[in-house]
Structure formats: C-alpha cells, structure tokens
C-alpha cells in the first residue's frame, strides 16, 4: 500500500442504518477518490481535514463537519495529524439531509455522542441504548446549521490573488483598501466580490483563515502568544477571543481536549 494512504472500509453495504468510524491519521495522509451508496459525515475533533468532493474543496476544522450525500466522489488530505470521526448514514435516512455537499455546525451533543462511541469502539449500534444514541445523532444531523463551505474560494483574479497571498501569510494585516490597491481594483469592487463569491465579508474570511492556521500551529506545540503574534494579533487576549468565537473554547482548552480524544 502507498505510504500515508488511508485504508477504506471494505463495505459493499452498511451493516446497519448508521455505521461509525473512528481513527487517527498522521500528517501528510490522504485517501484515494471513492464514492459509496450511503451518506457520510466527516468530522475531526483535532486538526483540520481537507476534502475534495466532486471537484469542490471543503475544510473540516473542530466544530464543523462536512456532509457528503450518497454517490458523490470524494477524497481527503491531512497536512497535519487529525483525530477522525465519521458517521455513515443509510440512503433511506438521507432524504431529509442536504442533497449537496456542505459544511455543518457540529453541536456539543453530536460531538459528545461521536466521542462516546469512539471511546467504546462502537461501530454498529446494537444495544437498545446505543440505538437510541444513534437516533439522536440522526436528529442532530438533520437540525445542524448548514454552510456551503467553511472557507470558500474565489474565481475573480484580483480576489483570488489576495486570498493566495493571505494563505501564505495569514498574519498579514493589510486592510481591504490596501489589498485593492495591490491588485489594481477599487476597494468597493473587492468588497462586492467578497460578498458575491465568498458569501461573507473580507474580515470574516480572513478570521476563518486565521482560525484554521492557528489550529495547525497549536497542534505543532507553539505557545498561544507565539500563535497570536504569527496570526497578526496585537495581543494574546484578542487572539483568544477570536478562537473562542470560532471553536467554542479557548486555545488551551482545545489543546487539552485534543489530548483526551
């Protein structure tokens, strides 16, 4: 087998209406493109997973999962190590779930149940208690808040150039007006492109990029102060406030949780 290639479950059909998968994948690991006749929730409780689904790129950081409806070809790549949780959903339960790939907010209840199943190494819910928990998983999945993608990408040349530069240096604090001058468009034009192509403001997109970059930095063992500085924040407290808004916990809490899962 190719080094760092993630093995796929050998399933021709699901053994139950929901099937659970949990694992840890090392840095620079990936899966080959594949598809299956059931839906799948991909979620990482530590790290960030990048997925390609039918030619679209999705990211799954903590607090967000990626939903893949049945029969969509997909693959994944992990730049850094991740703690992985997955829920396979039989096609009869997918009718009430999104029909297109999307990012879903992961509730604390959904997260806790996935963690519980992983801790007990439950793949197929067989006991009455576990079947009830599996039903709660489906209910939580159905009510999860939908986003198209956590960190969308742009097609316009100027905006694409800005995003590419920021991915190389997420701590760059240049304003939208300064970036507009850099790519020879007006600030108003660049702001409109952000809303039209990204579905969010430039500031919101940059904050999400910094959140994803900070997770990878924290996983490498950098201090909160070091990460705050690298992400362009003037103080650790400002960085911590941003991280807590995105992750629902502080950077230190995230690191402690990552050690437990």
How is the quaternary structure best described?
Answer: single chain
Helix and strand succession?
EEEEEEEEEHHEHHHHHHH
Regions with little confidence, pLDDT below 50 for 5+ residues:
none
Instruction: Choose one word for the global shape.
Output: globular
Q: What's the Cα radius of gyration?
A: 19 Å
User: How far apart, in Å, are the first and last alpha carbons?
Assistant: 27 Å
Q: Class of the largest domain, according to the CATH hierarchy?
A: Mainly Beta
- Number of distinct beta strands: 10
Give the second-level CATH assignment, the architecture of the largest domain: Sandwich
Structural class: alpha+beta
Q: Would you identify the CATH H-level superfamily of the largest domain? A: Regulatory protein AraC
The overall average pLDDT, rounded, is 92
CATH topology (fold) name of the largest domain: Jelly Rolls
Helix count equals 9
The share of residues in extended strands comes to 15-25%
Q: Order of strands in the sheet with the most strands?
A: 1-8-3-6-9-10
Overall tally of structural domains = 2
Q: What portion of residues is helical?
A: 40-55%
